[in-house]
User: Which sequence fits this backbone?
């Protein structure tokens, strides 16, 4: 599979342009955040920072991304619909970062923003059949195409937002996911998808010096929802459309970390009789912190998980299902061994804590389960 040298050059230029603009805009956006009062004050246990931090950094990411897009990307009708929806998402995020908006209002606006590209031709038309015993390789969605597309975009938009709980986490995971889509697009010679993903990677990397622990600025809902929205829409353009037979697996691997964390959070809240939209302190990054890891260690672990999932997606698109499964399994083993080597104390303490909880007051797991029922 030969990748044209000219495409590589334009991809690098798009990435560097977005990175430079995002980096240079960050201090200006930081000053603007202070002026308009977009400050994140640590007022509950969910927040990891101890001092007020400006939270409009996503605006710098958006500006860097847009400059690169306007310079290097061919703006088709579908791309116009994606960018229009992105503008709505960013405006919503800016207002929400300045003055907290009701969750229902944000949800409705996100649906409107997602409907624009769905009506503009950015749709999930089919995806692979998860039933491996079926003769049908994939399902054609038909009339369900638009509602499922809107659901996917809104879900990923919020999933990325929900993992934005540690310095640099959502930004870095988004950059890794975008890099994965970029690699797959390059191997498939998908020029537009590659250019857009290069711009997104560059914008994320340019903001990273301000967002890594200890963060000088958060990207806020402005950045997290924007990144989720672009990853969702471009995964439709570059993965669902070009890899129909394996489309069920590839996007879910690339975006596996935010999808898993969000799904687990919703299931946990519903099981406890809570509103699934109710914020809590039980996300995967919170659990790693509770294990004894510091913010940098927790973020590094989640970066590794995201990278393993991304590389598995790349192998799946190039080497087939068996190689992808073998690679994923091998990487999981390596990750577990590395965790025990790098964080032996934390892993041991977590295991002992779980064992203590199970046997507390002399109760066995079965007795405890009977009491809860």
Assistant:
């Amino acid at each position: 599979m030969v990748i044209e040298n000219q495409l590589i050059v334009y991809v690098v230029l798009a990435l560097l342009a977005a990175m430079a603009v995002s980096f240079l805009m960050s201090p200006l956006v930081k000053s603007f955040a202070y002026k308009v009062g977009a400050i994140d004050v640590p007022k509950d246990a969910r927040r990891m920072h101890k001092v007020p931090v400006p939270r409009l950094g996503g605006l710098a990411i958006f500006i860097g991304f847009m400059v690169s897009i306007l310079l290097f990307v061919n703006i088709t009708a579908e791309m116009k619909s994606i960018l229009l929806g992105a503008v709505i998402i960013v405006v919503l995020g800016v207002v929400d970062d300045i003055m907290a908006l009701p969750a229902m209002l944000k949800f409705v606006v996100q649906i409107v923003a997602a409907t624009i590209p769905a009506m503009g031709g950015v749709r999930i038309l089919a995806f692979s059949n998860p039933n491996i015993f079926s003769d049908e390789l994939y399902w054609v969605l038909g009339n369900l195409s638009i509602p499922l597309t809107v659901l996917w975009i809104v879900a990923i938009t919020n999933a990325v937002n929900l993992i934005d709980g540690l310095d640099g986490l959502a930004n870095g995971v988004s950059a890794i996911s975008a890099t994965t889509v970029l690699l797959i697009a390059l191997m498939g010679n998908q020029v537009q998808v590659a250019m857009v993903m290069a711009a997104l990677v560059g914008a994320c990397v340019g903001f990273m010096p301000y967002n890594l622990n200890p963060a000088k600025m958060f990207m806020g809902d402005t950045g997290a929802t924007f990144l989720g929205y672009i990853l969702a829409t471009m995964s439709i353009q570059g993965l669902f459309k070009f890899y129909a037979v394996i489309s069920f697996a590839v996007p879910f691997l690339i975006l596996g970390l935010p999808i898993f964390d969000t799904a687990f959070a919703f299931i946990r809240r519903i099981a406890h009789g809570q509103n699934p939209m109710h914020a809590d302190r039980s996300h995967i990054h919170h659990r790693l912190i509770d294990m004894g890891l510091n913010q940098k260690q927790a973020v590094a672990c989640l970066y590794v998980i995201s990278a393993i999932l991304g590389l598995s997606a790349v192998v799946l698109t190039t080497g087939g299902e068996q190689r992808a499964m073998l690679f994923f399994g091998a990487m999981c083993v390596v990750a577990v061994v590395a965790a025990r080597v790098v964080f032996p104390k934390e892993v041991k303490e977590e295991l002992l804590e779980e064992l203590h909880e199970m046997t507390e007051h002399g109760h066995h797991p079965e007795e405890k389960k009977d009491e809860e029922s």
